[in-house]
Amino acid sequence: MNKPQILVVEDEAFIAANLIQILISLGYTVHKAVAKGEDAVNSVKIQKPDLILMDIELIGALTGIETAEKIRAIADIPIVYLTAYSDDERLKKAQITEPYGYLVKPVHNRELKATIEMALYKHALNRKLKERDDTIRTLLNAVSDDLVLINSGRKIIAINKSMAEKLGQKPKELIGRAIGDFLNSQVLSEILDRIIDSHETDRQTHFEEKQNDRWVETLVYPVIGGSENDLRIAIQSHDITLRKQFEEDLKNEGLTQIGQNMEQFQILNDQIRNPLQVIRGYVLLDTTRYSDAINKQVEIIDDLVTQLDIGWLKSEKVSQFLIKHQHVFTKSIQEK
User: Fold this and answer.
1) How far is 59 from 16, CA to CA, in rounded Å?
2) At 249, phi and psi to the nearest 5?
3) CA–CA distance, 335 with 149 (Å, rounded to integer)
4) Does a cis peptide bond (omega within 30 degrees of 0) precede residue 106?
5) What is the pTM for the complete model shown?
6) CA nearest neighbour of 226 among 120, 119, 129
7) Taking 90 as the threshold, does the pLDDT of residue 85 lie above it?
8) What contacts 7, CB < 8 A, 6 or more positions away?
9) Would you say residue 269 has pLDDT above 70?
């Protein structure tokens, strides 16, 4: 295992030399110490240390805090501040640069090692979390639908660009916000209550809902993390307004057409059955050896007409089939 590499940024030569000696004795690899912020920035670019011990007060144009800000802009390296003071105002200014710890001079061996090890551990953990978040963000943005991931407290922990744009904000601005502040759906709220409060994490839920003048189809499904307590819920939705309009148009036009067909078919039934009745009448008036055969054929024709009539009465199934497969017809229309 490679030894962590440390850069010391200290403008007092004696303190810098003492720190280097202690760090080496603790098993770290130490780069040449620098006294100015400008030199620290250049050293980071060339040597890329694993951790920086930075004096808050430095000689030269840059203070330790200003130097840390410049380093943060070019590299992800944990910084531990060295200071001869512990006043709140100074530490408050230093917090802007998100340091991984503070050490008050003079520094003791045990305290120095504990602070460095904790800083390296926290930095490695933060990097893993960032990589995980980047992966989640990439996966979310790969989905064309609106997609948001919340925790059991209903707080947004990840959201894709599509959903953020729909809400009129940037993804970073929405992280940590309550999902109820943006998606005011009673159906969604009840589903989240059931999943979170009743621990119903074994199935996904689907619903359709009209929002203003648009129809939205939403899928809600729990995502269990590394432990049972690490519950996350994905909310995925997409616009189905076009499909709904197609279904409505199909329903209206289909029923109208069916009505017209039924009217025409009723006329046709009468036109067919009337001659059949006449044929029956002639057979009764003039019985021949073919009477039975003629009547049998008349009954067959009458039965066929009845079956066709029943078929048209059930023609709503045709409409339902078209609705079920409407995407095929929509695509065909768009291609034309």
Assistant:
1) 14
2) -65, -40
3) 36
4) yes
5) 0.53
6) 129
7) no
8) 30, 31, 33, 34, 40, 43, 44, 47, 49, 51, 52, 53
9) no
Pairing of strands 5-9, 29-30: parallel
Q: What is the pLDDT of residue 334?
A: 46
How many Å apart are CA 272 and CA 106, to the nearest integer?
112
Q: Which two tokens stand for residue 249?
A: 């148009």
- Alpha-carbon Rg for the chain in angstroms: 39
Identify the pLDDT of residue 10.
93
Domain 144-239 is in which class?
alpha beta
The reported pLDDT for the residue numbered 43 is: 94
**Which residue ranges make up each domain of the chain?**
5-137, 144-239, 243-335
What 3-state class would DSSP assign to 193? helix
Report DSSP letters for 153-194, one per residue.
Answer: TSBEEEE-HHHHHHHTS-HHHHTTSBGGGT---HHHHHHHHH
- Please name the amino acid found at residue 288: T
51, 120 contact by CB (below 8 A): yes
pLDDT of residue 172: 86
Do 239 and 215 meet the contact criterion of CB atoms below 8 Å apart? yes
What's the average model confidence in pLDDT over 2-15? Answer: 92
Name the residue with higher pLDDT: 50 or 327: 50
- Residue-averaged pLDDT of the chain: 78
Tens of pLDDT, residue by residue over 309-333, are 666 555 555 555 555 555 544 444 4
Structure tokens at 239: 């616009």
Distance from C-alpha of 21 to C-alpha of 15, rounded to nearest angstrom: 10
* CATH for 5-137 (3.40.190.10, 3.40.50.2300, 3.40.50.300, 3.40.50.10610): 3.40.50.2300
Task: Answer whether the bond into residue 49 is a cis peptide, omega within 30°.
Answer: no
Dihedrals φ, ψ of 321, to 5°? -65, -45
Measure Cα distances from 245 to 42, 240, 257, 331 in Å.
Answer: 63, 9, 18, 14
